C-alpha cells in the first residue's frame, strides 16, 4: 500500500512519483555540514534508552573484475538507541561498477548520525526505531523511497495529516516536515530507504533547508 494523502504538505512533498535516470538532473546541493550533524544527532533524542546489538545483512554483488557472484561479510553493529545503517551507496548516475568496492560497501554507520547522501547517486539505508519512540518533526533534503519492513507507526506531517503505516506499506517522502511515532511498546520499527539528492527547492521565496523542531 502506498500513501497519497488528500491534503498536501507545502508543495505536496508526500506523493507517488516516478524518476528516470535519463530525465533527472542533479546539481550540487548547498548544505551546512555542521547543521546536518546537529540535526541527525538530535533527531532521535527522545528515544528510549534501549541497548541492543544486531548484524547487518550481507549484500550479494558481482565482482567488477571477474563478474562472479559473492557475498560481503556480516558486520556487527554496537548497541544504541536508534540505529542508522548505510547499507550501500553509489556516487554516480548511472551507477558505475568500476568503483572501489570499499567506497560503496563499507558505509555501515556509527549509530549516532544519518549518513550523508551523495551529491550525485543514491544512498540505500535502514533505520531501526525503538518501541514507543517519537521523533521530532524534521526535514531532510532528499527524495526518499521508503518501505516499512517491520512494525507499525504513525507518519505525521506538519500540516496535521496522519497516516498509520504497517509492514509492507510504502512511502515516497519529498523533503517534507514529518515525524515518526512507533505505535508499539514492545516491537521495533524498521524502515528501509533509498535516498536520492534533490535540486534546491523554494517555497514562498524561501529556500528549504534541513531542519528539526525538537
CATH architectural label: Sandwich
How much strand? 35-45%
CATH superfamily: Jelly Rolls
Biggest beta-sheet profile: 5 strands, antiparallel
Shape: globular
Output the helix-strand order: HEEEEEHEEEEEEEEEEE
Cα-atom radius of gyration? 17 Å
CATH class: Mainly Beta
- Separation, N- and C-terminal Cα atoms: 30 Å
Q: Strands of the biggest beta sheet: in what spatial order?
A: 5-6-13-8-11
Task: Give the beta-strand count.
Answer: 16
Whole-number mean pLDDT: 67
Which assembly state applies to the chains in this document?
single chain
CATH topology label: Jelly Rolls
What helical percentage do the residues reach?
A: under 10%
- What's the tally of helices? 2
**Poorly predicted sequence stretches spanning 5 or more consecutive residues:** 1-59, 106-112
Amino acid at each position: 500500500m502506498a500513501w497519497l494523502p488528500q491534503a498536501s504538505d507545502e508543495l505536496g512533498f508526500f506523493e507517488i512519483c516516478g524518476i528516470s535516470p535519463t530525465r533527472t538532473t542533479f546539481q550540487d546541493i548547498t548544505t551546512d555540514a555542521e547543521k546536518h550533524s546537529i540535526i541527525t544527532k538530535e533527531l532521535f533524542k527522545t528515544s528510549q534508552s534501549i541497548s541492543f546489538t544486531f548484524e547487518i545483512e550481507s549484500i550479494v554483488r558481482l565482482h567488477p573484475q571477474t563478474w562472479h557472484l559473492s557475498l560481503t561479510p556480516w558486520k556487527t553493529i554496537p548497541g544504541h538507541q536508534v540505529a542508522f545503517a548505510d547499507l550501500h551507496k553509489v556516487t554516480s548516475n548511472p551507477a558505475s561498477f568500476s568503483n572501489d568496492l570499499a567506497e560503496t560497501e563499507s558505509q555501515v554507520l556509527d549509530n549516532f548520525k544519518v549518513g550523508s547522501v551523495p551529491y550525485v547517486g543514491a544512498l540505500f539505508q535502514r533505520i531501526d526505531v525503538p518501541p514507543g519512540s517519537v521523533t521530532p518533526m524534521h526535514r531532510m533534503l532528499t527524495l526518499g523511497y521508503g518501505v516499512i519492513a517491520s512494525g507499525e507507526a504513525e507518519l505525521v506531517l506538519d500540516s496535521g495529516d496522519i497516516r498509520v503505516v504497517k509492514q509492507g506499506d510504502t512511502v515516497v517522502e519529498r523533503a517534507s516536515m514529518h515525524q515518526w511515532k512507533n505505535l508499539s511498546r514492545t516491537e521495533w520499527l524498521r524502515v528501509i530507504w533509498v535516498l536520492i539528492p534533490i535540486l534546491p527547492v523554494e517555497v514562498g521565496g524561501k529556500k528549504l533547508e534541513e531542519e528539526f523542531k525538537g
